[in-house]
Design goal:
The protein is of the alpha+beta class. It contains five helices and five strands; from the N terminus they run E-E-E-H-H-E-H-H-E-H.
Length: 151
Amino acid sequence: MKTCTIPSTFGDLILVEEDSYITALRWGRNADNDMTDLLEEGRRQLLAYAAGALQKFDLPLRIAGTDFQRAVCAAMSEIPFGETCTYGDIGKRLGVPAQAVGQACGGNPVPIIIPCHRVMGAKGLTGFSGAGGVETKVALLRHEGAGGFLI
């Protein structure tokens, strides 16, 4: 496993690479940076996103978990920059309850890159598993110019 720390406007991020795939993105700092070409590209894309110059990530991802977790991550990845949908919307597409989608969304191992911040509850803004919680979710949505969410 190789990692690098990326300072960003959304907090310090740790990007994780395993076997030539991005497998995780966490908030925090890592003392060891094992820069690879893939981590450098991930760093470049995350900084471009934070600068407003990138709207869709293009990185090889490997999502650990069940087929359901991967299906929810795939559905979240299809939400366009600056738009939102609800857990119920994804649930209807996948034929499962909104609560199950919410749990899978909270277990997203690659937030920001897989935009779980774009998923809302039926009545508006909900929590966020990243550092800073809902405040970070709001910052990400504002950064993208996403409207229609309730604070």
